[in-house]
Amino acid sequence: MAEQFNDEQAYVDLTTTALQVCQGRIALISLQDGDKMWFRTRVGLDALQIPKDKSFCECAMAFCDRILVVEDAAADPRFADNPLVTGPLGIRFYVGAPLVLSTGLVLGNLCVLDSEPRKLAAEELDMLDFLSKQVAVMLEKSRSYIRPQAGV
């Protein structure tokens, strides 16, 4: 009997692949949920969500169809005072590729973070873009960008 496709494992696999491609410490599928960013899938981080105004993802979502790369967040005036940079996580590197539905709606990002500054090659950015498009297709087909409600 053929093994059944597992959506959840596919999200984890895509997130893990993004982590490996970009050689980071944390990778997330981050989705906007009101004033929070909800982590649909996360590797290397225990938190389930973060206030949107404290996340890198809010800025990345403003780029819509482009990847946001922050090579050194401590040196970037947009993020230098962010608690993710100045606090215990000590984030220095961020790259986020938008998750865009066929309607053009940007749901969130596939992102990779690290505590060390870094640059990515064009090939790594291309691969992250490819992975983010796969995540967006899966989210749209399964409608799993809708956060489960407690008690439902």
Layout of strands and helices, then pairs:
Blueprint: H1 7-22, E1 26-33, E2 36-43, E3 49-51, H2 56-62, E4 68-70, H3 83-86, E5 93-100, E6 106-114, H4 122-142
User: What is the level-2 CATH architecture name?
Assistant: 2-Layer Sandwich
Number of strands: 6
Classify the beta-strand content into a percent band. 25-35%
The helix count comes to 4
The largest sheet, given as strand count, sense and whether it forms a barrel, is: 6 strands, antiparallel
CATH-derived topology: Beta-Lactamase
Organism: Polaromonas hydrogenivorans
Domain GAF: 14-137
Keywords: Plasmid
InterPro entries: GAF, GAF-like_dom_sf
Structure description:
- The protein is globular.
- It has a single domain, classed as Beta-Lactamase (2-Layer Sandwich).
- The mean pLDDT is 86.
- A hairpin with a 5-residue loop joins strand 5 (93-100) and strand 6 (106-114).
- It has a six-stranded antiparallel beta sheet, sandwiched between helices.
- It has 152 residues and is an alpha+beta fold.
- Helix 1 (7-22) packs antiparallel against helix 4.
- 32% of the residues lie in helices and 26% in strands.
- It starts with 6 loop residues before the first helix and ends in a 10-residue tail after the last helix.
- It contains four helices and six strands.
